Amino acid sequence: xxxxxxxxxxxxxxxxxxxxxxxxxxxxxxxxxxxxxxxxxxxxxxxxxxxxxxxxxxxxxxxxxxxxxxxxxxxxxxxxxxxxxxxxxxxxxxxxxxxxxxxxxxxxxxxxx
Length: 113
What we know:
Layout: E1 2-7, E2 14-19, E3 25-27, H1 30-35, E4 39-42, E5 47-49, E6 56-59, E7 66-71, E8 79-82, E9 88-91, E10 106-108
Parallel strand pairs: 3-10
Antiparallel strand pairs: 1-2, 2-5, 4-9, 6-7, 7-8, 8-9
C-alpha cells in the first residue's frame, strides 16, 4: 500500500488515496469497459477528497449500487463510491506518476451482476 495523489484531467478534482497497485481490476460491465477503467478498491478512511465536492456530478445506473462521480468541467471519472458496500473504487489511470504498463489487473465479471 502506498499513498498516491490523483485527479481528473483539468485538475478541478484532486484526491489522495492509499492504494495497493498489486490489487487492480478491470471490469467488463458496460460502464467500465467503455471507459477502459483500471480500478483499485480503497477503504473510505484511506481516501481524501482535496477539492470541493461541488466540482463533481454523480451518475447511477442499473442497480444504483455505485455512485459514479465525474468532474463537471472535463468529464473524467477519477473514482466512484459504493452505495451498497462501504468503499471507493479509484480509477488507477487518474493517479499521478503510475506506470500503467507495469500493472497486472485481474478481470472482474461485472457484466453478470
